[in-house]
Amino acid sequence: MTTAEAAPPPAPEPVDENIWLEEIYGEEQLAWVREQNARTEELLEDAEYTSLEDSILEVLDSTDRIAMVGKRGDWYYNFWKDRANPKGLWRRTSWDSYRSGSPEWDLLLDVDALAAAEGEEWVFHGANFLRPATGGTHRRALLSLSPDGGDANRYREFDVESRSFVDPAAGGFDLPTAKGNVSWLDADTLLVSSTAEGLPSTTSSYARTGVKLRRGGSLTAAERLFEIPEDHMMALVAHDSTPGFERTFAVDWISFFEKTTSVLRDGQWVQLDVPADVNLSSHRGWLLFRPQQDWTVGGTSYPAGSLLAADFEAFLAGGRELSVLFTPDEHTSLQSWSWTRDFLLLNLLRDVSSEIRVLDPQQPGTDAAWAATVLDACPPLHDVNAYAVDDEDTADDSDDDGTDGAAPVAEGEAPGAGNDFWLVATGFTTPSTLTRGTLKRGDRGGVDSTHEVIRSSPSFFNEGAYEVQQHFAVSRDGTRVPYFQVASRDLALDGQNPTQLSGYGGFEISRTPAYSGAIGRAWLERRTGESAGNGGEAPHTRGGVYVVANIRGGGEYGPSWHRAALQDKRHRAYEDFAAVAADLISRGVTSRARLGCVGGSNGGLLVGNMLTTYPELFGAVSCGVPLLDMRRYSKLSAGYSWIAEYGDPDVPEQWDFIKTFSPYHLLRDGVDYPETFIWTATSDDRVGPVQARKMAARMQAMGIPNVWFHEALEGGHAGASDNRQAAALQSRSQHFLWRSLAGGGA
């Protein structure tokens, strides 16, 4: 590279008087945190707060809530937390027992007992089973355990029959705590992507390599299979052990939205020839594609957000015959999909209400390549998701249970469960239900389904007193932005209702209707008394209004909705959210003094921008585990991995637009800012706590009144690792907003 071609110097960093707070575990820094925590707890943790926390904890610890299960072999596995078991129990039961409504659980691991025995605050993050040999049982699993609730995990081999870890001295796998991923290659070999034991990491803090770890070996001596450049986001290696379709994959995750996938053939990696922004997945003989931007193949253009299929081997050999399974329109987007043994389930959103289609690869369709049947299971303004029970259950679909094949689930272990599916339905005022169904080809074409409700969540508030409405605000550029409003059926449109506006708007993540007993109790049913008017009428009370905004940057309308707010277009997400706030005020639902907003992570960045750019719209802001310093975010924790979303602040022309949505740099003297509560967690190794610390410190130093900060010392990016911590986290945010908006004041 010549001098003339040399890259320009990085954009200069603004003066940062709080950079000392970036040392996460420094003694002086933690002393500052404890002082802030004490100040905030003194303000918030009054008798009303204590009652609120107990009420929310009762919801989280309820023994009547649905114990969701995952099927492996003949067993149904569940992880459960409650008051007596705050760290949780990993357990299993039979189908007969689970279906009975009063399961007899076979306890596999008590995480509280493990933590006490080992002196480590373990947080259970899941189990990855080894596929057994033909005729065998699922016996060995790798358990993922985090020491503090963060993203770094320790993987330990566990024997579910002996209910114990396999001793490393006897060859049991035990991988040191690190960020990464693990996949079984066979009974004695793992495919590992990790930063442990000196293996290299990317700038984003994730694994750069994939290695083959043999039983009894070490990661440092393991054979390296795959490696990516340091400035790429993450390497991943994994094995698909589906009988007859065994394949080993490597993924070079270039950025958050770009990756290349390769399959191992004859000892060589063969890269699948698709653009990096086309999402891939495989199932048996099929390869599925979901482009994030319009994709032209063989002269045919396929729109972003469509779903396409090809024969796996034919595509690898150079064939480009693609079948169109779904095409989005201005109202409908594809959110996810799941394969049963013979059918493909598509989970869609139509104006943010669910629709589920079942596709049959064996029958030609009319509007798509495969015949599609709409599953009649989705009421309006609800979120309903379907996914397979166990697509690998290849038991014969027989009728020897005496039901002539009519029952969705037979007594005992269901034969032919490969075409069974779970259906989880929820709404803002509808407690969740779990349904199990079976799919089969209809006698007259299409796909028939039978269903049986297995579990229903309990009610935690008087849902019948509230109404869910969907409204559309008009953003600055004329885009119609949907939002959900949950309020009392006798809502008075007088501008005086305490209103909590929630949003996210990033990473193509959709905000959909969901039941929350905590929101019901902490916000909707909470009452404030005030005079009905100036004429001496009898006083009356009113509850809170809860609002969820479906702003651009999210995935509610597919990739185009997301890309509309990427990088230099980020302001559109904030304009959308502000438009919803203004619409609530103009409709008389609330007023500036009664309107608060709440968001976490990228949602914390969202409400940070409401604080600094639209302070005239809000009376209070609750900002959780947030990004706020967008000049240094890419140097903190996993921030480098989000450059594809926000831009690179080290590039001068990109910093020019990033600084317009960097709340830490947008604070100004003389502005009437909303009351502000900023909360985070010391052990958050994804966003990290330092941006929240610095924002609070700067606001307090500027003399901005009513700025509060709290930092949980554990809990990771979720801010909580058990139900008690989760209840405290939710209660602090809810109590702060209510005090600020309902007249108490912080």
Automatic annotation (TrEMBL):
PANTHER family: PROLYL ENDOPEPTIDASE. Residues 404-418 have a biased composition (Low complexity). Residues 15-240 form the Peptidase S9A N-terminal domain. Residues 392-403 have a biased composition (Acidic residues). SUPFAM superfamilies: alpha/beta-Hydrolases (SSF53474), Peptidase/esterase 'gauge' domain (SSF50993). Its EC number is 3.4.21.26. Residues 541-741 form the Peptidase S9 prolyl oligopeptidase catalytic domain. Residues 392-418 are annotated as: Disordered. InterPro entries: AB_hydrolase_fold (IPR029058), Pept_S9A_N (IPR023302), Peptidase_S9_cat (IPR001375), Peptidase_S9A (IPR002470), Prolyl_oligopep/macrocyclase (IPR051167). This is Prolyl oligopeptidase. It comes from Arthrobacter ginsengisoli. Keywords: Hydrolase, Protease, Serine protease.
